[in-house]
Amino acid sequence: MEKASINIKKVVLLAGALCAYWIGSGFATGQEVLQFFGASGTKGILAAIIFLIIMSYLTYTLFGIGQKKKFENPYNVFEYYCGKIIGQVYIWYSVVLVYAICVVMLAGGGATINQYYGVPTYVGTGIIAVLALGTTLLGVEKLIDIIGVIGPVKILFVAIVGIAGVATIFAHPGTLTNASKLMPTLGFKAASSNWAWSGALYAFLALMVSIPFQVDCGASAGSEKEARIAGLTGTVAFTVAIIFLTIAEVVYDKLIAGQQVPTLTIAKHISPALGLIFSVLIVVSIYSAVASFLLVTVRKFAKDRTKKFNIIAIILTVVATLFGGIIPFDKLVNILYPLAGYSAIVFAGFIVVKGIREKISKTDDMLDEAS
């Protein structure tokens, strides 16, 4: 019966939606992967495996609990794991964090369009804001359908860049080893001086900004098994993208030194046509991430596709558009990101403890029934 409930198309859409949610402007430009993985050279691949191990357990759990509990509001998951008081602290911190990142990405989106296409910044910001708002107003199910298709496309093009790096390694076997040794000398910023901690920290950052979204995705699945498979599939696909991009950045280390957008630099080097596609992909990545983050924020205050939801979504979009460029986002990120990482570690602890307690409770119940 459980097997019959697995819808492959739904699994792919949910996995793609998770990838699209995580692949925002930072990932699409290559800066996130460079700082958390690429800067460590070949050890960045091992860091990606650490990310995979941690994130697989967390997505498996959150997608599953989203389907199992079907919370009226996805933010209720914080109270489910942490209790009323601590849960409320997490709820409001998560709302502030997700919206702040949404504002940052929207502001950065306008600047990105201006840099690539020469369109005035306010026009670029306005275009992304309108597209993101329009997608958000369609509701969570439609958003998952839309960005669920975008996610695999993002993975595909990141893979193309990675495959070019792998091809270079095969043509020149010593390239990866030599480049890996050279990486620390090229002045790249690293998220941490320890490659293993970088991988773990990236997992916890990804967790903290996506908890309500993962719960929503899980609730959208047809069964608990389908939800868990989708969560694992999305995590594996995202990790593959990290590994491919890490390889490409290490192989093309000298090429990307001093570049703000490593992926675009590598893509242009491979082919001018691929460079053009990547410039579009970066904009699409920003749009899909802004739409997702906006929807997750508004879902705290109202059910999607209601009048209240629409009004709040419009107001938050206008505020983000008007004030995005004013907020010193470098300081904002510097404060919020480290705090997000450490608060996510604590939340992951709550998830583990809750899971252990439930298993003990089930075991006790089974023993009572046996006796």
TrEMBL record:
<protein>
    <submittedName>
        <fullName>Uncharacterized membrane protein YkvI</fullName>
    </submittedName>
</protein>
<feature type="transmembrane region" description="Helical">
    <location>
        <begin position="90"/>
        <end position="113"/>
    </location>
</feature>
<feature type="transmembrane region" description="Helical">
    <location>
        <begin position="119"/>
        <end position="140"/>
    </location>
</feature>
<feature type="transmembrane region" description="Helical">
    <location>
        <begin position="272"/>
        <end position="297"/>
    </location>
</feature>
<keyword id="KW-1133">Transmembrane helix</keyword>
<keyword id="KW-0472">Membrane</keyword>
<feature type="transmembrane region" description="Helical">
    <location>
        <begin position="152"/>
        <end position="175"/>
    </location>
</feature>
<feature type="transmembrane region" description="Helical">
    <location>
        <begin position="227"/>
        <end position="252"/>
    </location>
</feature>
<feature type="transmembrane region" description="Helical">
    <location>
        <begin position="335"/>
        <end position="353"/>
    </location>
</feature>
<feature type="transmembrane region" description="Helical">
    <location>
        <begin position="195"/>
        <end position="215"/>
    </location>
</feature>
<feature type="transmembrane region" description="Helical">
    <location>
        <begin position="309"/>
        <end position="329"/>
    </location>
</feature>
<feature type="transmembrane region" description="Helical">
    <location>
        <begin position="44"/>
        <end position="63"/>
    </location>
</feature>
<dbReference type="InterPro" id="IPR038728">
    <property type="entry name" value="YkvI-like"/>
</dbReference>
<keyword id="KW-0812">Transmembrane</keyword>
